[in-house]
Amino acid sequence: MAKYKLEYLWLDGYTPVANIRGKTKIVDFDSFPTLEQIPVWSFDGSSTQQAEGSSSDCTLKPVAVYQDSGRTGNSAIVMCEVCLTNGNPHPSNTRAGIPDDPGAWFGFEQEYFLYQDGRPLGWPETGFPDPQGKYYTGVGYENVGDIARTIVDEHLDLCLAADINHEGINAEVAKGQWEFQIFGKGSANAADQMWVARYLLLRCAEKYGVDVEWHCKPFTGDWNGSGMHCNFSTDKIREEGGEDYFKSLMEAFENNIDAHIAAYGPDNHMRLTGLHETQSIDKFSWGVADRGASVRVLQSFVDNGYKGYLEDRRPNSEGDPYAIAGRILQTVNEVG
Ligand code: ADP
Ligand code: MN
Ligand code: MN
Ligand code: MN
After folding, report:
1. Cβ pair 309, 105 in contact under 8 A
2. pLDDT of 276 strictly over 90
3. 181 ligand 1 Cβ < 6 A
4. From 24, 34, 137, 230, which residue has the greatest number of CB atoms within 10 Å?
5. Residue spans in the chain of domains classed CATH 3.30.590.10
6. Which of 309, 24, 60, 19 is nearest to 190 (CA)?
């Protein structure tokens, strides 16, 4: 038997955006625990906007477990759903509402800003850095600053050690802005990984005195906002496809524009303006290779008989990947 540090993670009840919370439980195991071996736990929901003080217990139901290489000794991260004491999902539990589909695959492209002292990392104390242009995939101190690359690389290593499908990094269009991509198979899998990857990024940046700014438009001006493009496919979209099916899918997306925007993160009107590679928030469009469309269709998708995956470009950097995946599957399922 050895002692393991289990970091239980969950989403709190704050709106419009939940925060990640975590606390550590020490448990004895013979070897790295499977999900089934990890005990249910609880927390004080009155401190997370999830309960009244008089009856404050909420239940943490483990849903996924990951290696934690950023901590000494035997350590694991346990992603949890929040449940009521009777076992039913808590109203804040967006994961529980995702339609189940093992054939659903999601790829999220998370953009964000690194922040220090109230401004994007590498920005001058007053005024603005040079206009954007050379920062995207940029190299050199002048373009990326000094510690950003240390942080994003350390984050990458933490994700890989946790078996998270981190797929890559790029410096983004605005100075101090970065992206990483996460892919997963199954309705909630990529979203679970994304929440854990967000946690690891926050935790890794702490020791550099750096915060992560997830807001989709943290400052105004001629600067790109942050999105979280959602690439998605199902068995039918990948294997059957066809132009007619694709067009009915897009029609369903258009008919559900408000429900999608509601699930795609707060303040998206600040980002979806029709500028900076976006479609405006009240319009729905799709286009082949069109970065100004709501849904971008790859040329290879069309060439393969409208088969493959689609990219919804509207979800923003602060969106809840559970809510995003859930909404997309709901609309896809409406088409049948
Ligand atoms: P871009 O910046 O050009 O939009 P990225 O390479 O950043 O492209 O992101 C593409 C995303 O699409 C990746 O997260 C990838 O995992 C995802 N993806 C690739 N194939 C599929 C698929 N069949 N179903 C769902 N997502 C996919
Ligand atoms: Mn990308
Ligand atoms: Mn990007
Ligand atoms: Mn994209």
Report:
1. yes
2. no
3. yes
4. 230
5. 105-335
6. 309
Question: Are the beta carbons of 289 and 299 closer than 8 angstroms?
Answer: yes
Q: Phi and psi at residue 93, in whole multiples of 5°? A: -85, 95
Q: Which is the closest atom of ligand 1 to the Cα of 179?
A: 7
Q: Does domain 2-83 have CATH number 3.40.190.10?
A: no
Domain with CATH 3.10.20.70 in the chain: 2-83
pTM for this one?
0.97
pLDDT digits (tens, 9 = 90+) for 41-83: 999 999 999 998 778 899 999 999 999 999 999 999 999 999 9
311 lines ligand 1 (CB under 6 A): yes
246: CA distance to ligand 1 center in Å?
Answer: 18
CA distances to 177, 266, 268, 327 from 17, rounded to whole Å, are 20, 7, 13, 16
The rounded distance, in Å, linking the Cα atoms of 81 and 59 is 8
CATH 3.30.590.10 fits 105-335, yes or no: yes
Cα of 2 from ligand 2 centre, angstroms:
41
